[in-house]
Amino acid sequence: MSRSLGPDASDETRYTEGMTVRREVLGDAHVDRAIERTTEFTADFQDYITRTAWGDVWSRPGLGRRERSVAVLTAMMALGHHEEFEMHVRAARTNGLTVDEIKEVILQAGVYCGVPVANTAMRLAQRVLEEMGEL
């Protein structure tokens, strides 16, 4: 498996790098809430996503964070993961996507995912961007 940290990186190193990236992309407040809600039942999952999603994948050099945000927004739309979509609209702004670029991602994905999906995404994105004071 190819990782930005190298194939011999320890779980601890991957977790530390993952937590750094996770905080940079999602913000301290969001990550702190997730950590506070962690239970004995969910602890392994929190560790897993921090090491793999954030430490292994989001840390890779092959795509920038802007491009990763485009991919994630599209996937969350296609799969109907509305809560995650809203979270990643915020992350997309953090990662440098403009409001117009987020709109274009929704339009582009709507061609392939369907008008009802894009309609919902537009509504959700508008609400998030209004909450952020962006609209």
Outline the structure in words.
The mean pLDDT is 94. The chain is globular, with a radius of gyration of 16 Å. It is 74% helix and 0% strand. The chain is mainly alpha-helical.
What key phrases describe this protein's structure?
135 residues, mainly alpha, 7 helices, globular
- Residue runs with pLDDT of under 50 for 5 or more positions: none
- Give the total of beta strands: 0
Tell me the distance between the termini: 42 Å
**Total number of helical segments?**
7
H and E string: HHHHHHH
C-alpha Rg, in Å?
16 Å
Estimate percent helicity.
Answer: over 70%
Largest sheet: none
Query: What is the structural class?
Result: mainly alpha
* Overall pLDDT level: 94
Q: What characteristic shape results from the CA principal axes?
A: globular
Portion of residues in beta strands equals under 5%
Can you summarize this structure?
This protein has helices at 11-26, 28-36, 43-57, 65-79, 82-94, 99-113, 115-131. With 135 residues, the protein is an all-alpha fold.
